[in-house]
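All the exercises in this workshop are built on plain-text protein records. A learned vocabulary of local backbone shapes supplies the integers on the structure line. Once this layout is familiar, the rest of the handout is easier to follow. An example says more than a description, so a record of this kind follows:
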Amino acid sequence: MNTTTFQLFVYGSLRSGFRNPIYNYLTQYFHLLGEAVVKGQFFDKGEYPVALPTLDEHFITGELYEVNNAEEFSWAIEQLDDYEGVNVETGEQPLYRRAITEAFQNGQPSQAWIYWYNHSIEGMPVIETGDVLKYLHEKNKP
């Protein structure tokens, strides 16, 4: 594990616009650097969109955070791993996997942790927009 990367890229329920209770936890240990993008593609799982990395020129929009205290990073990220379904019982497949990715903020690259979907996307429609908030807003319009 790369222990020198203290940034986190979030694109779904951990984003500030979702008003998810876990966001309060996130902001106790991380501070927002701003909007950023990573190479990836969204898919509609039904209950929620999921993302996978891509080598193509597809980008997903999210937010880039940095840990407030480097000494608390390991503990703080482990709590997020639990939320994202990374830590599972023996024999179970994690829902997401945490990996290092290249995030771009104002065109400048940096290394950040991200949670990628860890199951098959077979049969899931591709979401062309690279922004989950915009996609869900359009999908849920009356």
Summary: The chain has a mean pLDDT of 91.
